[in-house]
Amino acid sequence: MGKPTVRLKDIADKTGFSVNTVSLALRQSPRIPEETKILIREAADALNYLPNHVAKSLVSRETKTIGLVLTDITNPALTQVAQAVETVLSERGYSTLFATSNNDLEEEKRVIEMFRSRQVDGMLIYPRSHRELEHIRRLRQRGYPVVLLVADPDAGIDAVCIDERRGAYRAVRHLIDIGHSRIGIIDTSNPKGNLEKRDGYNQAHKEAGLDVDPELLADPQGNSVIRGFWAMDRLMSMPVRPTAIFASNDSLAIGALRWTQKNNLRVPKDVAIMGFDNIEFAEHAATPISSVKYEVEMVTELAVERLLQLIAAPDGLPEPRVTMIDPELIVRDSTAGRGD
């Protein structure tokens, strides 16, 4: 048998105060003198009293808990997001439950249902696919507070995110502006995946009057450094090599950089490399890597703020709102002009 539950009455019996006074003191009510609060808190600590949050949530219909669903916790940018979300929510009196879909749609659906069964007040979701959102759309249609951390403006779901299309456009435009016309891209080719970065890549080419060569797309089949290494190997095995590489995240870019080191190519003189997310490792790579900055703090603050607005909405959820943050391009040694 477990230890018996300590009740408010037990603290009242120990201190000689009424149950109502004990309850008010533990809730920091201004009606109770400070010395009385201290006495009651000390008695509660001595008895190992724990507030019954389940009972409270049944009354308030709030658990003060938020679910956070990520695709891959090993992605350094998403690790930063998780840490920032937990910090911001904690400051607002909320706990965070984490789950990872491992880029699997069925697993994503499972963890979302798991969070619902835990009665979290709302969810922040980084979906596996920006195109397959029907299961999340249904949640919102039932009045459930949910905010995406990537955006499809027409999804009918609240979202706060980086404008990935704009970020990729800026990155590739920079490569074109410093003299590159044959630019490889290391990015997924899954049509149900996240095509925003490829769209930005295509847009930059179109504006510059350059044709997009489909042979210059290397699908890394993952997001790790070693996947970037082998994708770079495929691109650099072509009869006419690309002179620059745009990788859809910094881990892939670091893998591409590692390939150049193993094969005695100079960056950026022989090939320029551009990443995305601006993780710490990119800045401190052997050749510091240019990147598009993922605005972790801004995304986190705005996403949490929007989610708490949805949770507090008195008359059902308001119309969905999509906030897209214009990202900054960080230029480092890996994309200096070839003439430098």
From TrEMBL:
PROSITE patterns membership: HTH_LACI_2 (PS50932)
Lineage: superkingdom: Bacteria
Single GO MF annotation: transcription cis-regulatory region binding
Keyword set, alphabetical order: DNA-binding, Repressor, Transcription, Transcription regulation
Record-annotated HTH lacI-type domain positions: 6-60
Gene3D superfamilies: 3.40.50.2300, lambda repressor-like DNA-binding domains
InterPro entries: HTH_LacI, LacI/GalR-like_sensor, Lambda_DNA-bd_dom_sf, Peripla_BP_I
Protein name: Transcriptional regulator
Organism: Devosia soli
